[in-house]
Design brief:
The chain has 97 residues and is mainly beta. The chain has a domain at 29-94. Helices cover 6% and strands 34% of the residues. The strands form 3 sheets. A two-stranded antiparallel sheet has the order 1-2. Strands 3-6 form a two-stranded antiparallel ribbon. A two-stranded antiparallel ribbon has the order 4-5. Strand 4 (47-55) and strand 5 form a beta hairpin.
Length: 97
């Protein structure tokens, strides 16, 4: 028999708890300060972004190519508390798809 809370009209109401997904063989990055394991920031300093556009017949523009060059430091941070997690940046890049 399934357990659930009985509501009016003798209907059962179930609460579904969400469990974090486990990925065997991988290690999720987790902020040691706030426990965040979902939101992160990659911050690049001294960046040059070159975007090539074509102008359409109606006068609007459409990007066709872009190039990004990073001349400075790249930092990796927690998206919730802002803690510096740069030591995990290599792992982040390996898991970026």
């Amino acid at each position: 028999m399934r357990k659930g809370k009985i509501t009016k009209n003798n209907l059962r109401r179930f609460v579904v708890s969400k469990k974090p997904l486990a990925y065997p063989g991988t290690t999720r990055i987790m902020c040691p300060y706030c426990g965040n394991d979902e939101d992160f920031l990659e911050l690049a300093e001294n960046v040059t972004i070159t975007t090539r556009y074509v102008q359409n017949e109606d006068g609007s523009f459409t990007p066709v190519a872009d190039d990004t060059q990073v001349f400075g430091e790249i930092r990796f941070s927690c998206g919730k508390c802002g803690a510096d997690l740069t030591k995990y940046h290599k792992h982040f890049l390996e898991m970026l798809f």
